[in-house]
Design goal:
This protein is mainly α and 218 residues long. Helices cover 68% and strands 6% of the residues. The chain has nine helices and three strands; from the N terminus they run αβββαααααααα. The chain has a three-stranded mixed sheet with strand order 1-3-2. A hairpin with a 5-residue loop joins strand 2 and strand 3. Helix 3 crosses helix 5 and helix 3 packs across helix 6. The mean pLDDT is 91.
Length: 218
């Protein structure tokens, strides 16, 4: 299936495909790693819980990451954004130092507090900006995956199964979502469903069926 998708998207084959067992063997996941030596990593649990169509949909998602070089782009965005943000942070700290001679006796305490506030803002900004772009990459991979397998319902089922098996939440608050690398699973399912004219009611039915299926198997 991987070779079929690689050929379909006209990308270089993975250097290696690894199937790993996580601690306890209870985590269902797939990921692309490496730059020069690109690897596709799958967990045993993922292969256990997904049927053929669902697995193909997940593989299509990962091959899409490979095609659009999302790993490299994420690193570039992180580095460039980090340089810009912390350059501004350094400038702000230097400006504070110049104010030292006009400050009162409690300057050291004030400087430390402002320094920490600026550092937290800089670090939070770096995370928010980089996570925004990783979520966009995930959305693109989601839509490509649903399209490649010609059955978006298979991908929706796969996302539902992975979320349930990993005991993850289907949705999170809007503020927390900003710090996540992936959009909430339910949001991902609904976005894919909307593109392929699948109703929200049908998505919820798919999720309920998945929960029932895994409960019986579990």
């Amino acid at each position: 299936m991987v070779n079929e998708l690689v050929n379909k998207l006209n990308v270089k084959p993975f250097k290696r495909i690894r199937v790993i067992r996580t601690i306890g063997g209870k985590v269902a996941n797939a990921m692309v790693t490496g730059i020069n030596n690109r690897e596709l990593i799958l967990t045993e649990k993922l292969l256990e819980v997904l049927d053929k169509d669902e697995l193909k949909a997940v593989l299509a998602h990962e091959v899409t990451h490979h095609k659009y070089k999302h790993v490299e782009l994420s690193m570039i965005i992180w580095v460039v954004t980090g340089i810009l943000i912390f350059s501004a942070f350094s400038y702000g700290v230097e400006y504070l130092r110049r104010l030292r001679y006009s400050m009162i006796d409690s300057w050291e305490t004030i400087f430390f507090i402002v320094y920490m506030v600026l550092y937290i803002i800089a670090f939070a900004s770096l995370i928010l900006i980089s996570r925004y772009f990783t979520r966009r990459a995930e959305r693109k991979a989601d839509l490509e995956a649903a399209k490649l397998v010609e059955d978006p319902r298979a991908y929706i089922r796969a996302l539902a199964k992975i979320t349930v098996v990993n005991l993850g939440p289907m949705k999170v608050g809007k503020i927390l979502e900003k710090f996540e690398t992936h959009p909430p699973p339910l949001k991902r399912m609904l976005e894919a469903a909307k593109v392929y004219n699948i109703s929200e009611e049908e998505v919820k039915e798919i999720i309920n069926n998945v929960v029932n299926e895994l409960s019986k198997a579990g």
